[in-house]
Specification:
The protein has 347 residues and is α+β, with helices and mostly antiparallel strands. The protein contains 9 helices and 14 strands. Helix 3 (72-85) runs parallel beside helix 4 and helix 6 (204-216) packs across helix 9.
């Protein structure tokens, strides 16, 4: 009789960023690749000449390739820059590998490359190497991009997914769910008209402001920024479950404090979606002691991409591995854990 492993097949849910993705990583990749530097965080932290470097890679397959607020080129730079930033690392250099479908218009590649150039310049990072492949029609959906990045970790910065602590405030750096909603509407699968623009943005400047803020506070240190995580596929809800599991803590959210644009809330209401599980590409979730939350949110609101930063909850010792939501009418409910494919699929 064949074993369960030998008959199992990959499904789209394995790429959605929820529990199936974590199971795939744990059961296959972590089992084969495990070593002292292998990490569950956004980037590996590696020794480099007496300093520390953050190293990460990410693949981008987005349909449609262009949408309100960005395109796959901008997204590929933001995604990798933000992963480095979440480790307290100033992004320095990127490489990119581009797989192009035969027949792709040259004008589209010009648009994508120009967006990558512009976004890299804004993020203060250089694209220094790359690779190009052309695949036959139907083998690639227009263009796929893989970017790899290296950054310089700030001294004493040590954010990690296992450092959330009871008593921490949970902060988001802006309204949530906009990227996923923008992609959904751009596909025109539903007859819904709404003005929604992706939040896609490079966030090193925002992260730098957080470290500058704790540096200026008399009773704070860089290590007080316990967790920084960008809420990409799977959205804020998936990030919260990841951190609750990695840190062995509970998380309590205040539904009334979660910033969601009215248009996004309306689309979610029509389609039965939860904005907590819609992707963001320009939002961080920050865990830090409650006493620091007012100063951190005030600093975030002075940045370009953090003007709607808000405290949305707290970390608790109870309900370890769970996320509880206090609703706007005062009741409590458990946020359902993401298990299957999350919609809309963005990568």
């Amino acid at each position: 009789m064949e074993s369960q492993a030998s008959t199992a097949r990959i499904t789209l849910a394995h790429g959605a960023g929820g529990r199936k993705t974590r199971e795939l990583i744990e059961q296959v990749f972590a089992r084969h690749f495990k070593n002292p530097e292998f990490t569950a965080d956004d980037a590996a932290i590696l020794p480099l000449g007496g300093k520390k470097a953050a190293f990460t890679t990410d693949g981008f397959i987005v349909s449609p390739w262009q949408y309100p607020g960005g395109n796959i080129g901008k997204l590929s730079i933001c995604g990798t820059v933000n992963d480095l930033s979440c480790m307290g690392a100033r992004p320095r250099y990127l490489s990119c590998a581009i797989q192009i479908e035969e027949g792709c218009p040259m004008a589209d590649l010009e648009t994508i490359a120009a967006s990558m150039e512009q976004t890299a310049k804004e993020a203060g990072v250089r694209i220094v190497a790359g690779d190009t492949k052309v695949a036959g029609r139907g083998q690639v959906d227009h263009v796929f991009i893989t970017t790899t990045g290296i950054g310089e970790v700030l001294p004493d910065a040590c954010p990690a997914g296992n450092r959330a602590t009871p008593g921490d405030a949970v902060i988001v750096t802006g309204d949530i769910g906009r990227h996923g909603c923008a992609i959904l509407l751009a596909r025109k699968d539903f007859d819904i008209k709404a003005e929604v623009t992706s939040d896609c943005a490079p966030l090193w400047g925002l992260v730098a402001s957080l470290f500058e803020t704790v540096d200026a506070l008399p009773h704070a240190a860089r290590g007080d920024l316990h967790v920084l995580r960008d809420a990409t596929r799977g959205g804020v809800g998936t990030v919260l479950y990841e951190i609750a599991e990695e840190s062995g803590v509970g998380i309590r959210l205040q539904e009334s404090g979660i910033p969601v644009q009215p248009a996004v809330k309306g689309v979610c209401g029509m389609l039965g979606l939860n904005p907590l599980y819609l992707a963001c590409e320009g939002r961080l979730v920050v865990f830090a002691p409650k006493a620091l939350a007012p100063a951190l949110t005030a600093a975030l609101r002075q940045t370009t991409y953090g003007k709607e930063a808000a405290v949305i909850g707290e970390v608790t010792a109870e309900n370890a591995g769970r996320v509880v939501v206090e609703t706007e009418i005062g009741t409590e409910t458990m946020l359902p854990e993401p298990t299957g494919e999350l919609l809309p699929r963005i990568c």
